[in-house]
Design brief:
The protein has 280 residues and is mainly alpha-helical. It contains 7 helices and no strands. The chain has a single domain, classed as Rhodopsin 7-helix transmembrane proteins (Rhopdopsin 7-helix transmembrane proteins). This is Chitin synthase III catalytic subunit-domain-containing protein. It comes from Thamnocephalis sphaerospora. GO terms for molecular function: unfolded protein binding.
């Protein structure tokens, strides 16, 4: 199905986790759920691996005492790690497809969007409009990220369960929620693009170097490729593996790759301060 602005009929072929909240949309290829055995053990395995890595980066970031934006980056990786925990829960099918399952998927969606928002906030922190590590800075990053996550989760729950009059009525096979569509698709894209632009300006104008930008560009390309696997490749992979995995498997790996290079980029532009602290 073609992508229509504000509508989720694309869930027929796309492998986005959020698609699970729209139970009336019938995927052209169904990924097997966890039951008594193993069908998506590969999918669960990659979720566990990425969660372990993100938790490790969380600890490593916390220990870089002299790095610029350490606390703010710690918050971003905290959002990312908690998102991974909910991804494991939802990928394993512990909550099923009932009301509880839809709420858990909605929380995951909210945290994912909140992660992109905190990424953008980290991009702004580097310009030191407010001194990094201070209470206003950390509260601003965490608080705004939490608000974005809560608002996204609310609209997701509302769209799936029709809790309020805000939920838009549409054909069951092509549900519509303009607010959720913007929050889930447009906001992360805008946050990532703005972060990229801000970091290019920061590195070229303030730091006077280009080498770290390679890692940043690799991270951005990996993010874009993840969306390609979600939207264009998910259904062929699902059909080719008889429903064992879909495009979300590769998309999660690519998102993990993006996180790795993003961390390495941040580490590279703060390593001078870290080395100075370590040799003091």
């Amino acid at each position: 199905m073609a992508i229509e602005f504000g509508k989720f009929g694309l869930c027929e072929t796309a492998g986005y986790p959020l698609c699970r909240v729209f139970s009336d949309v019938r995927p052209r290829c169904n990924v097997q759920d966890y039951t008594a055995s193993f069908p998506q053990s590969a999918d669960l395995g990659k979720c566990r691996a990425t969660t372990a890595w993100r938790s490790n980066r969380l600890l490593t970031t916390h220990r870089k005492y002299a790095a610029v934006g350490r606390k703010e980056m710690y918050i971003m990786f905290g959002f990312l790690a908690v998102t991974s925990v909910f991804q494991i829960i939802n990928s394993a099918g512990f909550a099923g497809n009932d009301k509880t399952g839809k709420i858990l998927v909605s929380v995951q969606a909210g945290l994912a969007v909140g992660t992109f928002w905190t990424l953008l906030m980290n991009g702004i922190v580097g310009f030191q409009f407010v001194e990094d590590g201070t209470l206003p800075s950390t509260i601003g990053v965490f608080g705004s990220g939490a608000v974005v996550a809560i608002v996204t989760a609310f609209f997701s729950v509302d769209a799936s369960l029709n809790l309020t009059s805000l939920a838009e009525k549409a054909q069951q096979s092509n549900p519509e929620s303009l607010a959720l569509w913007i929050l889930y698709f447009i906001v992360p894209l805008a946050c990532a693009a703005l972060y990229l632009v801000l970091q290019i300006v920061l590195v070229l104008r303030l730091l006077g170097t280009r080498k770290p930008l390679l890692m940043l560009l690799i991270a951005f390309v990996a993010m874009v490729m993840a969306q390609v696997f979600y939207i264009l490749v998910s259904n062929p992979i699902c059909a080719g593996t008889d429903g064992i995995i879909d495009g979300s498997f590769a998309a999660t790996i690519l998102t993990g790759v993006a996180a790795i290079f993003l961390y390495n980029y941040w580490d590279s532009i703060t390593e001078d301060e870290w080395d100075e602290f370590g040799t003091a």
